[in-house]
## 1
Amino acid sequence: MAAGAWKVFNRAKKYIGNGTLSLSSTTFRMCLATSASNLKTSASAKPLMNRTSLTGQVTSTLGCPVLGKALGGEVWTTGASAGQIKFDTSDLVFTATTSAIANIKYAVIFLTGASAGAQKLLCYSTLTTSQITSLAIGNTLTVQMASGGVLTLT
């Protein structure tokens, strides 16, 4: 499934600016979230900050690691002009191993961290306009990164 445009969390922009979230020396992971997630809830009292503030995350009981899967092939390249830097990564494959996974709608990229508070959210993509009703046991979902990469800094 081709990922739509990746949206950087507002809090992530702040963390990048103050150095809390370093894009150069870190490892990122991706997890899946359901249509019941609080990703797009603007009425939330607190903005999303880290992985534990994310609700509706697909759990390990469904065969999807709750700590997500490590991104591979992370690369920084020059964009359309010398003033642009692009971040891209390889596609990721998730497999429903222990039971069917229902209502998948989002992919979320977050910083790997030893503590839950260190697992800062970076960005998310809406994978489908409605939701994937069910990913049956043994079936896979490939999150295909957008052709323009995950994000561009200008």
Note: The CA atoms of residues 68 and 119 lie 11 Å apart.
## 2
Amino acid sequence: MTDCAPLVVAKEMGYFEKHGLDVELSREPGWATIREKIYHGELDAAQAPASMVMELSFGYTGMVSPCLTAFVTAHNGNAITLSNELWDLGVRDGESLARVIREHPSRRFTFAGVLKYSSQNYLIRHWLLSHGIIPEKDVNIVVIPPPQVHDCLKSGYLDGYCVAEPWSSLGLLQNIGWCTTLSSDFSPMHPEKVFMLTEAFHEEDPDRHIALLRALWDAAGFCDAPENRPDLSRLLATSCYVDVPVEALNNALVGPFQMGMNHQVSADEAIVFHRNDTNRPTLQKAAWVMNEIALHKIQPEFPKPSRSQILKCFREDIYNDLLASLSKN
């Protein structure tokens, strides 16, 4: 994903080394693999969807491993892409999509997120609901891995999807579909990815954890600076990282964001890495995740965690320790 950028920059620009760390980055094939490797101790930490901290801590998928985050690595970064066929049917936004669905009662339209516990799943559901379209009742919702969504749209298996960059842009620049909205527009500054590790890894060496956060702090600042974005795109485009054309990364990192159908918008807020207190793991950001899980009944059989349980997952106290360590320099 484009928003893995802080980890890549911390490695490639020497920020990990600057803070006395020897870090190996491991490119994994999917979120389920990351979840299972964290659970089994094969990864010490990971860039992860914000929900995965709760998913593992509360055992939503049967695996229980208390996890935490003290650093939000990215906000925003998603887009909702619809098929060219929907455009030909007259769809231009959520309101016209609802009308087209009503006008075709014999057809079952299908939309995708990328993981059950992901902002993309919540966002596509929330966007549909905001226009009177009820997921599962009026349309199908399926889960498709990010690199496959644009091919599924092209082949007609999907009518639309919500996915993180660069996978929307890759399809848009190939004219496979068109973007109806960026998540920064309809859910501004929603928490997207976090730096996740197990509680045991933190407790084993809290100073090591702070050193990791210091490196990520430096890297996130680099990633957010507009003058660094072209170089960042070129770095992420390499085969060992995101491995897509630079143009697909530039769409959200540099802009303007090409929405398709000869329309473009500013990319200034498309992905936020550092400004606006992005990195602080607040209770409000955790609550956004939990409220979305509850709203869409993603995990109905589990009681909603208490405030104290959530605060054990989103560790603003550790983040404050990071800030204190930075102020000493």
Note: The chain has a mean pLDDT of 95.
## 3
Amino acid sequence: MKPMRQSTLRRQTKETSITATLELDGTGAHSIQTSIPFLSHMLELFARHGYFNLTVEATGDTEVDGHHLAEDLGIVLGQAFAEALGDKKGITRYGSHITPMDEALVLIALDISNRAHLEYDVVFEHGLHQFDVALIKEFFAAFVNHAGMTLHIKMLHGDNAHHIIEAIFKGLAKAIASGVAINPRETGIPSTKGVL
């Protein structure tokens, strides 16, 4: 029987309180409760389209600003992926996806390399009611730093902010699912260095 690739993490600060449970080899089952409803919705899409089982309970000082909670969610989810992957033995490592969402088209490419780097090429012509679209970049910056992942997000087309962001999260789910998948031909760590 293969080992379960899962993790449970808690983060408690003066600004946020977050608990997350992640299972990489899931069915997309999810229960997401954060004090940023739009971000909750994006994480639901992420879990469903990546077939990750994901439970998140998160509150924060959103009466001040959404920044602390968005960043800390990125930290916790990045740590959850890193912990669930363990030594990364047998993984495919790379993943990419081009995702359409109506007029929006987004390219995601990633390397689960233990080298944190984010390239974020997204321009919003319009914002969203009750959500600061700048928080998306903050979320992903924190996520890659703690997941140990190189991530490229490039908007190829789009003008509706909701569609663009939804395409990003769905594409990321597909790309990560590819990267964390077990490659039956890989007997060790997928690197000439022998370690990631």
Note: The beta strands are 6-12, 16-23, 30-34, 53-60, 94-101, 104-111, 117-121, 150-157.
